[in-house]
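Extended Data, panel c. Modelled sequence:
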Amino acid sequence: MFGLSKTARLLVTTTAACALALPGIAAADNHAQSNTGASMTTTSEAAPLIPRDALFGNPTKAQGRLSPDGTMLSWLAPHNDVLNIWVAPRDDIAAAKVITNAEDRPIRDHFWSPDGKSVGYIQDKGGDENFLLYMIDIASGEEKLMTPFENTRVQIVGASETIKDKLLIGVNNRNPQFHDVHMLDLNTGELELVYENEGYAGFMADDTLTLRMAFRQNAEGGTDYFNVVDGEVEETAFETTAMEDSLTTSPAGYTTDGSILYWLDSRGRNTAALFAQDTETGEKTLIAEDAKADLGGTMRDTKTGEIQAYSVNYLKNTWTAIDDDIGASLAFLDDKLEGDFGVSSRTDDDSMWIVWNDPLTAPSQTFIYDREAETLTPFYTTRPELEGAPLQPMHPVEITSRDGLTLPSYLTLPPGSDSDGDGRPDEAVPMVLLVHGGPWARDDYGFSSGVQWLANRGYAVLQTNFRGSTGFGKNFLNAGNKEWGLKMHDDLIDATDWAIAEGITTGDQVAIMGGSYGGYATLAGLTFTPEKFACGVDIVGPSNLETLLGTIPPYWAPLVKIFHERMGDPNTEEGLALLKAASPLYKANEITKPLLILQGANDPRVKQSESDQIVGAMKEAGIPVTYVLYPDEGHGFAKPVNNIAYTAITENFLATCLGGRSEPIGDTVSESTAEILEGAEHVQGLEEALGA
């Protein structure tokens, strides 16, 4: 599988390293309408308006998976308008049946048990990110909650190629800060305590489901890695990283026989390279490296766990095969498919793959690839309603910051605005600077519903990987340390100035928008540089960095040093002053441009109080703001009706500010749980939609 070990394929858990990751930009339907302003170009106005539902409504199918033996397929698809899990025999998809009955929040991830007898998924309540584990027995259809605890978040610690009826899981029901390791019997549901954890951030196991490694943060903000021998963690670390390598160095899993431990390692270098470490001698062998980007995903042998291919993602993601047979298969797929592709599921014998294909300017497709027969059988098109829609190409660009850093970026233009296809519009158009979350994350090349939505509404969309973004080496990452609101913000201003100088937009036609850290960047843009942007959209963004760090989820406590070293330590006079200076809250009275704030009431990462604080400060200063609260959402908006309302409000806010196109709001808000707490009058059509 691309990018994930077998353990990680079962369940990807969020860590503090990407604490403020961007929530998905999602929305849905209503009747199409064009609200055009003087700033819009004629060619853009002539392009069909893509309905929100086509871009953000429930997909027809998504996340296709093969059972371990290849006889069954599974996927996510709507059931009573909510995403649920479906299964079918691989040779009879028409016999598909739904095996879950989610009625409120969609199921967004699922996996097959190693023995193929059950399918599992995780689910939280109202966006609180206390994920519990559920399994459905394929033969009986019985669904069982495997972790029946309150205020608990499950983690997968280990899965096995040879012990297929069990998993190692971490559960923090005893102490919310630390996950105790249990052996879970997938068929009986029995949980057996393996290790009571009093201080480690995580663990790694081998194929025998034996704990082999524990790790925790050290006093400098790096990570110490300890061998686990006979169930006991050794006192002395066998590997350690300094803070500068803490987000670019990590173990990448053991081979099945446990003889090799793979590492992505930036120690003594800039970009993270791929190494194989002999677990007996400790000797490391370099497998691959790249001068511009960190080594990313790996493809592993389904039986031995040995690496067969690896990826590097600079401006675009590329794969290099080590194994000849894997190389031949990747070459076959590259010849048959247009655009990007990847492998999302493999059978135990590796004869069958599920392959996704992203043509970028056409809806993504998923295929069943028979490697022996060399056949690609269509499985599904995720959003067939986008066939023929005016989807736009994405242009990778490199922008130079004022102090000489290269900022890998992506530009998408409105339909019809670039007649010669050179990546520059024929005349300047309004622009949205779309800032990613994290901030220790990155923007990527590829289809994005949010980007296509904004471009279709008539905006150029610029995504810039500012310093502090991951994937481009530790020097680029660490250049963002303690630069919130400073050089990280300068990079966004430099990218905006580049777009103006290139004739992409003009100085009075740029909006800033983003989620999580991108929401913070929006608030920083409107407070620290109040005349730079025409308006801003803040989605679950923090306004007060001191209170943000004071309200982190308890299970991030073992990693809190990373925040202090990279943002500022509130326990020191200097650190607290830095955090306050970088907090938009204290300059709320500087805001002069329209601001839309959207917040989930149950957000465990960026609490509702972060939005409440700045809204309160703006009201006290007599500054208008539009504030939308979702009482049943967290760090982003999962429920379709709430996504629909979010995008309806946002595109009409941008149309009010920049003169772009939009669909009317209609019943989208009234059908959602959205509460308009402030400023409905500042968004065209919102008061009418509310019946005011």
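The domain at 42-55+389-544+583-627 is CATH 3.40.50.1820 (Rossmann fold). This feature is highlighted in the accompanying rendering.
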